[in-house]
Structure formats: C-alpha cells, structure tokens
Design brief:
123 residues, OB fold (Dihydrolipoamide Acetyltransferase, E2P), 8% helix
Length: 123
C-alpha cells in the first residue's frame, strides 16, 4: 500500500552501478543515484537542461532485481517514499534524504533503446 502523504515517483537514468549489500539476516540492500532531467527553452529560445540527483535505496526482493538488471545509464521508473536520516560525525550532525523505493520498472527496452519499450518485472 502506498502512503499518499509521502509518495514519490521518478523516471530517470542510473548514475552509477548500484551498490549491493547483504545483511546478516540475508536481506539485500541496493543503493544508487538517479538523475532526473527537465528540458526547457529559456527566454531566448535556447534549449536548457536542469538535472537533479536523487539517492535511491531498495530492500529485499526489489534490491535483488536491481542487482540483476540495473546498471549505470539504464533508464528506470521508481516509486517509494522520502526518508531523511541523520548521523553524528566529528561533532556535527549530518542529514541525508533518500527515496526508499517499493517498486521499480525498467524502461528503454533490453538494449536501452526507445523508452516506449518497457520491461515490467513482477515483485
């Protein structure tokens, strides 16, 4: 079930191969960066791109699928929620906001071709 009060959907390109960790319990965790880009024309009509980077985290079965199929440059769609966490280092509190995903869809086809060909994975 999706929490409508904290819901995020993004389509973008994977910035680097996902980092996969396995906890002692056997649960996998995948983390990677996702770039989303808006394209627009400025006042002079010149085409501009504005890219934002998002930290993505997945657990369990979704992390296992990511391990097998997601690579740098792959276009994907993700859905999840925002989660902010903090930690102390050198007397300073640090914060990071991540998108903890519960679903993912591969886009761009098997060879990263046009985005109208998609690979739906059941999980």
């Amino acid at each position: 079930m999706i929490n409508i009060n904290n819901s995020v959907r993004l389509i973008g390109n994977v910035g680097a191969d996902p980092e996969i960790k396995t906890l002692e319990s056997g649960v996998k965790i995948a983390s990677f960066s996702l770039a989303t880009t808006d394209v627009y024309k400025d006042k002079t009509g010149e085409k501009k791109k504005d890219t934002d980077w998002h930290r993505i985290v997945a657990f369990g079965g979704v992390a296992g699928v990511i391990e097998g199929y997601v690579k740098k440059g792959k276009q994907i769609a993700v859905e999840g929620k925002l989660k902010t966490r903090s930690w102390e280092k050198d007397g300073k509190t640090n914060y990071i906001t991540e998108v903890v995903i519960n679903s993912m869809q591969l886009l761009g086809g098997k060879t990263d071709g046009p985005a109208d060909e998609s690979d739906d994975l059941p999980f």
